[in-house]
Amino acid sequence: MKSKLTSEQIPVDDYTEAVELFHSKGWTDGLPIIPPTEERVSEFLQYVGLEPDEVVGEIRERAAVKD
Question: CA spacing 20 to 30 A to 20: which of 14, 35, 36, 47?
Answer without folding.
Answer: 47
